[in-house]
């Protein structure tokens, strides 16, 4: 269970930035003026520290 | 008439940084441990600076903007892959670091030797790793040449620029070493932030009024530039996915990254960096803005010339001192990573090929001497490569990843699968690298998939198949974490 949760915490942002991208390959809707594709990538890059922090927390490193 | 001003500012920035770095490192004696892995004592902040210095190179500065200019959305992979890399290596960092610490390792092939115990594999990894880094050194060299040529405004031709760049790089390595590199990175990072805010924010705002307007205009003039092409097109969606996977998984697979990992003080320093470094990737947005701005302001640059896109704006519309500031900052972004690249690859040749294989330079002094000679030899190799193969900077980076990503199974299975042994890993790397090189050389990309990724996939299959087909080694021989 905990092993699966740890895997998931890493796989979600990793997948969002790689295999999910062909599915969000649009210009619209524009987010803050950015094309959707670029905004999607920027969003996941920005939130990755949150996922990794949670992962480290569960593993007891901080 | 402006050239002396711009070149003068580059000289001031580079020399100032070297002096700062030297005044910070003088109190350490330079043993190989100190010179190559920074004495294994880097804390979280210092390691952050070292990694940021190694990763945010002149490629970030020129190559990413150049690709945005030429192709648009495919360049977005550059923001995504590093982040994927941090997530993946969060799991592998501790294993790599622990083996390094326990066995006092200096180089990447040493690591694989401890885990797999095969001289053939160690030598293969040493040679492939060093050769794979040559295009990456060439990338830094040609970027430095671009900065010098653009600032020289006709005074310096490209070949002279490249030779001067080579000499600068060699001098920088000899003077600083890895610890000096980290100190120099502090200066560099401060300047980079300033330069990026200028080219990525001030320029678009001045020319277009706002970022949304910039994108409105790109959309009108180049409607295909903001999304990836069809699924199987060249640089289409499958290309994007395979390239992010290849470069993300390979992000810390190069010999220079293993050295950086060894230089950490403890495992958590590495985990913390894996958590925070993705934030740094967000500055790539500014580079994309700069590339798109250049596309509209100075259209018509083709091939490698596109790498100079935003420099063309700066040199055409801004005073010489601004150009000097931007190119001087860029020059640091080429010099600092070159140091890490050359030092790690030279130390691999000195230790794992000259030392272990031929018995040359076995004591500390001898090792240091061979390392220094190899720095010059590899620098020359990069220069020769530049003379014969001029291409866009991104292509040089991808060439490097075709090679180093083939080590990913050796790391991953080495950590997680005790059954993976030397024959399987050796066969996997051999198959992977052959396939990647053959496909790249013949420019065959099935379904638009990155050739390096095809190699990596074959590599993984071979490792799994051979491991399952051969007897596992008795447990006590395996030193896996």
N-to-C SSE string of chain B, H for helix and E for strand: HHHHHHHHHHHHHHHHHHHH
As residue ranges, the low-confidence spans of chain B are none
- Rg of chain A (CA only): 14 Å
Termini separation of chain B comes to: 62 Å
Strand content of chain B: under 5%
Query: How many individual β-strands of chain A?
Result: 0
Query: What gross morphology of chain A would you assign?
Result: elongated
CATH classification, class level of chain B = Mainly Alpha
| Overall 3D shape of chain B | globular
Helix content of chain A: 55-70%
By DSSP (H or I, 4+ residues per run), the number of helices of chain A equals 2
Order of helix and strand elements from N to C terminus of chain A = HH
**Biggest beta sheet attributes of chain A:** none
Q: Helicity of chain B, in percent?
A: over 70%
Q: What percent strand of chain A?
A: under 5%
Cα-atom Rg of chain B, whole angstroms?
22 Å
Most extensive chain contact?
A-B, 32 and 42 residues
The number of domains of chain A: 1
Provide the residue-averaged pLDDT of chain A. Answer: 92
């Amino acid at each position: 269970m905990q092993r699966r949760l740890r895997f998931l915490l890493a796989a979600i942002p990793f997948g969002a930035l790689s295999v999910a991208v062909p599915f969000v390959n649009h210009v619209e809707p524009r987010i803050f003026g950015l094309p959707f594709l670029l905004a999607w990538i920027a969003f996941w890059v920005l939130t990755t520290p949150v996922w990794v922090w949670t992962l480290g927390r569960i593993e007891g490193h901080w | 008439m402006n050239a002396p001003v711009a070149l003068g500012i580059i000289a001031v920035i580079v020399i100032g940084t070297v002096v700062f770095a030297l005044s910070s490192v003088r109190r350490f004696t330079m043993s190989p441990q100190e010179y190559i892995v920074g004495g294994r004592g880097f804390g979280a902040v210092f390691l952050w600076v070292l990694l940021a210095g190694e990763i945010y190179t002149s490629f970030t500065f020129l190559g990413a903007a150049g690709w945005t200019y030429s192709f648009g959305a495919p360049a977005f992979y550059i923001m995504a892959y590093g982040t994927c890399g941090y997530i993946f290596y969060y799991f592998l960092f501790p294993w790599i670091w622990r083996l390094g610490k326990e066995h006092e390792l200096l180089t990447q092939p040493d690591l694989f030797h401890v885990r797999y115990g095969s001289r053939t594999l160690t030598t293969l990894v040493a040679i492939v790793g060093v050769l794979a880094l040559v295009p990456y050194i060439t990338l830094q060299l040609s970027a430095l040449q671009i900065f010098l040529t653009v600032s020289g405004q006709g005074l310096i031709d490209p070949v002279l620029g490249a030779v001067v760049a080579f000499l600068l790089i060699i001098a920088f390595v000899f003077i600083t070493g890895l610890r000096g590199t980290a100190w120099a990175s502090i200066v560099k990072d401060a300047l980079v932030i300033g330069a990026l805010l200028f080219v990525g924010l001030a320029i678009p705002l001045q020319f277009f009024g706002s970022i949304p307007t910039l994108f409105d205009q790109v959309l009108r003039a180049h409607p295909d530039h903001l999304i990836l092409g069809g699924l199987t097109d060249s640089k289409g969606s499958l290309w994007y996915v395979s390239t992010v996977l290849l470069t993300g998984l390979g992000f810390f697979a190069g010999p220079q990254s293993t050295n950086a990992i060894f230089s950490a003080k403890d495992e958590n320093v590495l985990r913390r960096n894996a958590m925070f470094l993705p934030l740094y990737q967000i500055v790539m947005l500014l580079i994309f803005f700069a590339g798109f701005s250049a596309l509209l302001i100075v259209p018509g640059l083709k091939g490698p010339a596109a790498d100079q896109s935003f420099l063309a704006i700066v040199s055409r519309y801004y005073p010489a001192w601004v150009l000097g500031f931007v190119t001087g900052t860029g020059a640091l972004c080429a010099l600092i990573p070159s140091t890490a690249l050359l030092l790690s690859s030279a130390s691999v040749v000195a230790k794992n090929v000259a030392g272990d294989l031929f018995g040359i330079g076995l004591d500390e002094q001898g090792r240091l001497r061979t390392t220094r000679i190899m720095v010059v030899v590899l620098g020359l190799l990069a220069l020769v490569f530049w003379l014969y193969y001029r291409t866009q900077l991104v292509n040089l980076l991808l060439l490097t990843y075709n090679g180093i990503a083939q080590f990913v199974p050796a790391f991953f299975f080495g950590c997680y699968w005790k059954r993976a042994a030397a024959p399987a890993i050796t066969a996997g790397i051999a198959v992977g690298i052959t396939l990647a090189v053959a496909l790249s050389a013949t420019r065959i990309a099935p379904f638009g998939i990155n050739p390096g990724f095809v190699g990596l996939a074959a590599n993984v299959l071979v490792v799994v198949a051979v491991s399952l087909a051969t007897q596992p080694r008795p447990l006590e021989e395996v030193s896996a974490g």
